[in-house]
Amino acid sequence: MKFTKMHGIGNDYIYVNGFEEQVDHPAEVARAVSDRHFGIGSDGLILILPSTQADFRMRMFNADGSEAQMCGNGIRCLAKYVYDRGMTQKTTIQVETLAGVLALQLFPSHGVVDKVCVKMGEPRLERALIPMQGPEGRVLREPLVVNGTMFEVTAVSMGNPHCVVFVDDPQTFDVTSWGPHFEHHPAFPEGVNTEFVRVLDAQTFSMRVWERGSGETLACGTGASAVAVACYLTGRTGRRMTGHLRGGSLELEWNEIDNQVYMTGPAVEVFNGEWYRKGAHQHD
């Protein structure tokens, strides 16, 4: 199985071209390749596939083998992959995901893409759409007891569930201890990604993220998008802002006219290789 390792501000994935390779057991392969000691090392596996309703289809598997609806950093790298390899010559493409079909604007320079803007879709704010247990309505500044401690949370779905928690300092907050308690909290029947956030000013925030199925990652595009929505809804920022994550920065806008969240950031290719473990084989 030929693969390419790529990352979006440190959120790294193993990419397999499904037009040329067949992956029979993607969950198993995701667990194997993601292992940072015995595998290649990544936050998960992304398959680039044909689509009947868009230019390409993306399937994304977390490091534990679970399939996720979407990945903002991952989809930017998919766009770079298909453009740089001549699989498309378009600078605006559509990609089918489990969160719907998303539009991407590519910014090539000297024949390669370094930056991509993703139209992340409309945030889903009703509790049932997160999904989260409890009464109907939005989850804004709501108290939630986690492992015996009260937190104030705001919940947003960007195709996958997010719980945004504003803290004094994400850099000193014990994300690795608290992350699993949020991820597996009974209020979230499908688990949840959790962002620990500090607003620096009306246009800037910093965050760390615990992703369900992967643990703490250097960045999360859907998470940063959810944070942008939560920041605005709780009156902390305007609609345009910069998010500083451990792996780098993203430009975000929750557009007032079309209700879409736009996320712009880099996409980087790290290296190519070949994987010989069971669970994947090349077409004859």
Low-confidence stretches: none
**Helix residue percentage:** 10-25%
CATH architecture of the largest domain: Roll
Kindly give the count of domains: 2
What structural class do you assign from the helix and strand content? alpha+beta
Strand content: 35-45%
The largest sheet is: 18 strands, mixed
Radius of gyration: 18 Å
Number of helices: 4
- Strand elements, count: 20
- Order of helical and strand elements: EEEHEEEHEEEEEEHEEEHEEEEE
Looking at the structure, the CATH topology of the largest domain is Diaminopimelate Epimerase, Chain A, domain 1
What is the 3D shape? globular
Question: How would you characterize this protein structure?
Answer:
The protein is an alpha+beta fold and 284 residues long. It folds into two domains: 2-120 and 267-276, Diaminopimelate Epimerase, Chain A, domain 1 (Roll); 127-259, Diaminopimelate Epimerase, Chain A, domain 1, CATH 3.10.310.10. It contains four helices and 20 strands. The protein has helices spanning 26-34, 72-84, 175-183, 221-233; strands spanning 2-8, 11-17, 21-23, 44-49, 56-62, 67-68, 92-97, 100-109, 112-121, 142-146, 149-157, 161-166, 193-201, 204-211, 215-217, 240-245, 248-254, 261-266, 268-274, 280-282. The chain has an 18-stranded mixed beta sheet that branches. It has a two-stranded antiparallel sheet with strand order 3-20. The longest helix has 13 residues, at 72-84. The protein is globular and about 50 Å long. The two termini are 12 Å apart. The mean pLDDT is 95.
